[in-house]
Amino acid sequence: MLRFGHENLRVSDLEASIRFYEEMFGLSLIKHLQANAGPMAWLRDESTPDFFLELTEGDVAPGSNHIAFVTDCREQWHAKHSAAGLIDEEIVGLGIYFLHDPDGNHIEVMPTEALDVLAGQ
What we know:
Layout: E1 6-11, H1 14-25, E2 28-35, E3 38-44, E4 52-57, E5 66-71, H2 74-83, E6 87-91, E7 96-100, E8 106-111, H3 112-118
Parallel strand pairs: 1-4, 5-8
Antiparallel strand pairs: 2-3, 3-4, 6-7, 7-8
């Protein structure tokens, strides 16, 4: 069986992006490294230690990337992101909303219940 290992996003300012994902999503920095692709950082949350967000500094095509977070605390995150003026769009019937990071990468936040609806259950 295969499992997801990481998601990579290209960012223009690695340190600013690290702060954004730490502050806006509670992710923790686990590693800084220099790779052929450029400076990189790995971040993760406490609930999925074998999956991480990989940020690579370099040329960015705004809005070309997408990552989704699933939460049991949708109202808490929605209030935080709304207060920061980050929410771009909402799918009200499913409780899903979208925002963007400093480079324009799209971020989807969905409540756990939306997974059942989208899976046809």
